[in-house]
Write a structure and sequence with these properties.
The chain is an alpha/beta fold and 262 residues long. It contains ten helices and ten strands. The chain has one domain: P-loop containing nucleotide triphosphate hydrolases (Rossmann fold). The longest helix has 18 residues. The strands form two sheets. The chain has a six-stranded mixed β-sheet with strand order 6-7-8-3-9-10, sandwiched between helices. A four-stranded antiparallel β-sheet has the order 2-1-4-5. Helix 4 packs parallel to helix 6. The chain binds adenosine-5'-triphosphate and magnesium ion.
Length: 262
């Protein structure tokens, strides 16, 4: 059973000579966690944007399924359905958590105002006051209700990342995409956010696409791993297998560079 599948997906940004991504096949089942690794510029964020429906791939197709395995959205049909309709389906089911929580939160909005946006847009908890839903979501990520009335600059980096995760959960998504969610954080805070993601995925049965340079973090959260080099998937498999017996020297070097010991 699939939640998201990519078939022979390639992408070339307008005006670019080289493709950012080529011939990527990917299957993600509900509740499954998949790690994506590769050196800088290899196409990880491009893959994240395509999986989130933010970018329509220039080749191949992306399919998003509902619980009954019906296609909710397909990039193959997007030109007919128009891009907007295609994206709307993704916004609800798939939420992206960004690398830099300070940049992703509007400095002029209180946390409550930030949380209210998706709560209103998706009406997931309709029938209860917004502040109550927002407080409950903050509770899920380990934050006090009192923070609702603060502005982003009045929070720590770790608290801001928790707010972003809470905002993502407001849509009641089935897939979280986290693109380097730890890299703007202090090392001690990284471990807390990692634990939080792990716990939320288990409790809410969320699928996760986790992009990180930190192979130890990827291996902690994900059973399976996709290795990308220059826009192509060169290897995929279980983390332990890739860490101990990689087929490619590139994979071995990635593990070595991140100091990961299997
Ligand atoms: N909006 C864009 N327009 C043109 N080229 C782009 C755009 N975004 C990314 N690229 C190019 O596409 C390639 C893949 O970029 P991408 O951001 O997906 O890499 P990445 O693996 O996420 O890198 P990093 O680890 O540094 O975040 C790079 O060569 C990059 O320069
Ligand atoms: Mg990136």
């Amino acid at each position: 059973m699939s939640l998201l599948s990519l078939k022979a997906v390639g992408h070339r940004y307008p005006g670019q000579r080289l493709a950012a991504l080529s011939n990527v096949d990917l299957e993600l089942a509900p509740g499954q966690a998949l790690g994506v690794v590769g050196e800088s510029g290899c196409g990880k964020s491009t893959l994240a944007r395509i999986c989130a429906g933010l970018v329509l791939p220039s080749q191949g197709s992306v399919h998003l399924y509902d619980e009954q395995q019906q296609v909710l959205a397909s990039s193959a049909r997007a030109p007919i359905h128009r891009e907007v309709g295609y994206r709307r389906q993704f916004y609800r089911q798939v939420q992206l958590i960004f690398q830099d929580p300070a940049a992703a939160l509007s400095p002029r909005r209180t946390i409550l105002q930030t949380m209210a946006e998706p709560l209103k847009a998706f009406a997931c908890f309709a029938g209860e006051p917004l502040a109550l839903s927002a407080a409950r979501l903050l509770g899920q990520v380990g934050l006090e209700e009192a923070l609702l009335h603060r502005y982003p600059h009045q929070l720590s980096g770790g608290q801001r990342q928790r707010v972003l995760i809470a905002r993502a959960l407001a849509a009641q998504p089935r897939l979280l995409i986290a693109d380097e969610p730890l890299s703007a954080l202090d090392v001690s805070v990284q471990a807390q956010i990692l634990n939080l993601l792990h716990e939320l995925c288990e409790r809410l049965d969320l699928a996760l696409l986790f992009i990180s340079h930190d192979l130890a973090a990827v291996s902690y959260l994900c059973e399976r791993l996709l290795v990308i080099r220059a826009g192509e998937v060169i290897e995929q498999g279980r983390c332990h297998q890739l860490a101990t017996a990689p087929e490619h020297d590139y994979t071995r070097r990635l593990f070595a560079a991140s100091g990961f010991v299997a």
